[in-house]
Amino acid sequence: MSASATQTVYEQLRVSLLAGQYRPEAKLKISELGSAFSVSTGAIREALARLTAEGLVTAMPQRGFRVAPVSVADLRDLTEMRIEIETKCLRRAIANGDLAWEAAVVAAHHRLAVTPIAAADGGFSPTWILAHGDFHAALARACDSAWMLRVRDLLFAHNERYLDLARKTDRGNRDAAREHRELMEAALARDPDRAVAAMTAHIGRTRDTIEPALRRAETDEVG
Amino acid sequence: MSASATQTVYEQLRVSLLAGQYRPEAKLKISELGSAFSVSTGAIREALARLTAEGLVTAMPQRGFRVAPVSVADLRDLTEMRIEIETKCLRRAIANGDLAWEAAVVAAHHRLAVTPIAAADGGFSPTWILAHGDFHAALARACDSAWMLRVRDLLFAHNERYLDLARKTDRGNRDAAREHRELMEAALARDPDRAVAAMTAHIGRTRDTIEPALRRAETDEVG
DNA sequence: TTTCCATTGAAAATGTATTTTTGCTTCGCG
DNA sequence: CGCGAAGCAAAAATACATTTTCAATGGAAA
């Protein structure tokens, strides 16, 4: 194999977590994962340690690893924070972006637009999730603050964990494609206020779509 | 020992890194660290993996781990971001803090005020660094956004790496104690604007103190 | 003399085995 | 019949051995 085993496991486990393939709070048994990926426990532990620092999994000393929990409160907090950071990034990207940035945004939007959203199981298709993340990343990428981008990436990753919950209630009545187009057009027009407004609405609407489904899931668990 | 070996190594390595005991870019040999802490290489690897995700060390596949680099550009970026986040936290803490918060702030300030700054080697004393971190943490702690606090902690940790560089140029001509007192008083007076102004000045002054020393260190390395 | 290739050594990555801890179950006692 | 303690099994943590990879040095050829 080209990359190291730890790296491979880390990346695969990460996309699985972001895609919601493991239930929050679910126990992540090291030996099970080891046989699933057919690598040693050491590689698994190392990957899990990195994911722990990222906050995607929680480590309980002597008691193993679990998938990080989700909650309505966390979603709201996360959304608020995302609006803050994403809009700041966007403003700086618009002020700072060159032609290459514009081209990358257009390219990413095109890929996103032509990728079907739905997967066979009713959730988002993996390729759409990827294209969606790439589009938002492309928008922010021209921001000239490495720290801001880094925090943005962290927040965006955590947001992805909530995304697949949205699909169940989001029966096509939300025109995400329209929102993405508006974002791109405002960015290319170099209209910061319009772009920020679009971004704020977009992120807020994501929360509004996810929250009911999440709330239902929470009460289901209790009852 | 009570905690796990990995946890112990992680914590100790972290404070060592924040205290600047390892030179930036320095190689962190796993076997050396293993014998130094007298634990196996596995525990070291796991601790380093977590620190990598935190950004305090960088991992190069098949080439081991290094202490994360520092630079003037990073310091400026970091400072800008810190001002954004710390002031936001502070506003929310002031709006949200109760009596327990006030008490904690006063207590932390007292500990900070009575702790001598200088260590024997001319750098900051470890106890002062701890008290300083605790004071700033206490100020922010009443902020009712877990994500904001988390990002704040991350940024503050990285800032600490630069702190010891400041000591060399900071020949007592900066009245840090005065700045901390002003911060506390503004917070207790529940005056957000005054507190934010004090915080902005405080963080900016830290950068202004560090940057010359850092710039000199950088040119020294090249020359 | 310089450059390129090969060999060698050191260090990291991985895999396996052992120890320790924890949580559960069962058995005994009240 | 219920509560508690002890033992047992599963899983995590750690130590150790093996394999792989990278880099540096030395030698040979141009």
UniProtKB/TrEMBL annotation, chains A, B:
Residues 3-70 form the HTH gntR-type domain. It holds the Pfam family GntR. The keyword Mitochondrion does not apply. The keyword Transcription regulation applies. Keywords: DNA-binding, Transcription, Transcription regulation. Gene3D superfamilies: GntR ligand-binding domain-like, Winged helix-like DNA-binding domain superfamily/Winged helix DNA-binding domain. InterPro entries: GntR_C, TF_FadR/GntR_C, Tscrpt_reg_HTH_GntR, WH-like_DNA-bd_sf, WH_DNA-bd_sf. PROSITE patterns: HTH_GNTR. It comes from the Bacteria. This is GntR family transcriptional regulator.
